[in-house]
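Q: Predict the assembly, please.
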Amino acid sequence: MATVEVRDLRKRYHNFLALDGVSLKAESGQLVTLLGPSGCGKSTTLRCLAGFLEPNGGEITVEGVSILSTPANRRGFGVVFQNYALFPHMTVAENIGYGLKLQKVSKSELTTRVNEVMDLVRLGGLGDRLPREVSGGQQQRVALARALVLKPKLLLLDEPLANLDARLRDEVRWLIRDLQQQSGITAFYVTHDQSEAMAMSDMVAVMKAGRVAQFATPREIYQKPTERYVADFTGEANFLPCTDVTPHGEGHYSIAAAGTTLDLDGVPGIAAGAPAELLLRPEALELTAPEAGTFRGIVTKSAFLGSALHCEITLPDDSVLKLSAEPNTPVTKGDTVGIAIDRSHAWLMPEVAP
Amino acid sequence: MRLPNPRLLLAIPAIALIFVFMILPITNMAEMSFRTTGTKDPFGEDYTLAHYLRIFGDTYYWGVLLRSLLTAATVTVLCLLVSYPIAWHMSKAKGMKAVFLYACIASPLMTGVLVRNFGWMIVAALNGPLNETLMALGIIERPLRLLFTQGLVILALVHVFVPFMVLPINNALRNISPTLIEASTAMGATRRDVFRDIILPLSFPGIYPGVILVYVLAVAAFVTPALLGGQMVSYMPTLIIGELTGTFQWPFGSALAIVLSLSTVVVVAIFTALTAKLMERSKA
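A: Predicted assembly structure:
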């Protein structure tokens, strides 16, 4: 139950700048996801929060108070690791109770609290097993219970689902989200899986080379990304180069793309004539008769996926659009088709030098 | 005809080696220990329990046995205390530093046993470098009599057995995932807590073989006690060699050797039993 703020965090390893000014804020009770590819600095940020790493610059505050000089063992944060980091020589119950034992709580209280949290994560009856004697999903729940039992001010989760198979991942994901919301604990969650980030988070920070590329709600990140990198990382996306960008008030533009002019919304502040890209998510596109659509093109690939028909359509200017059509749409390779755009799902972004 | 399991064939060299160099001589020695003392041959024709009765009936032999076992235990404990920090640093080292440390650790084993012990005699002599340094520093006024003391025997044994303790512990420490240390720290553990609750128990799979190796080697050590221990105190190995090569009492010497072996096995078995649960839990 704490507001956590990270300001201009910097961390350098020898010649490698791991964090280049990271700023984030988690309101009390929010789950903030750090999303990005490996090496983008998301784990480094988390390790600075946990106190395992000392940043070279910047500030981390909890409820407005700096914690940088507080050692990791006195921060009172719960940490869940990708490899679980369960103590192999302690039973499940001993693992969960270890932090309480260090706090010297009475034996009866320890037992009560450990049993409570074990019920919460549905580990009842497994207390006497060693970690290696329970399944991967159960190990992950032990790791979660071990962090929660201490009633931490902040929960830090470092790719907690990465080692689980798909079915378990879904189950544990909802468990984590439910527990986090029930207890109202502020949480930071590191992942490289965009669907995980979308589904669980209040706020998402998409990270790129030691910086935060965009920090916003999942909806905004997906629908209104500030740059191509963010759009690419958060889901299937088509990009069309645009010309003749003309602003019409804050965040409204008219553009020319693939031979058509369009009015649409975009990132505020793109100058007239500046290079820009049009983002079209597959769900913004619909197949129509050749003369009815905004664009006209030739089907160069179509694949039946069961629930949808995946098509790739080449436009006259050789740009390619990917979209999902209704599975029974009668199109085959070589057909000329029209594409209609749902303009509320189109988005204009400035072209950023990579 | 069916061919035997090829895996058993692979085991034949090992079995042959153990049979020829371990089972046969021990059986031979065990049998000899029940023989009467011979006058012309190494042992007489008849069987007897006299040698064992003599050993168990004489407090002198009890005392020597006890001294041997206690000295070995002292050497083992000191070795563990000295080796653990070295193993810790070694487990953190990488690249050339690790190679250098391995070479330093193995250095006592690179010197011949006689040269090493004569070296200790020179170092510990009344006018040797150790005494001279201590006097130069003003710590002592007159040279200490270090040579031919039990303390020097223990010191020299610890010196040579450190590698046997460091290497397995280093191995075990390297196997401890650093995230375990971070996890316990995040749960509020101080460095002392982390060492006591996580690192020490998880390094036990290295401590155990180290302790057994050093203990068994220390019990059986002969050259170091013989050269550095002098004539005043006896250890089982020196006593046994004395019976075998000095007075040619082969049956009695064999009985002493069997008693020493069995006592060592018993100590190892007790240690194993006491630590079985910890070992079971901490092994990877």
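Chain B touches chain A at residues 177, 179-180, 182-190, 193, 197-198, 201-202, 278, 281-282, 284 (CB under 8 Å). Chain B has one domain: 77-282.
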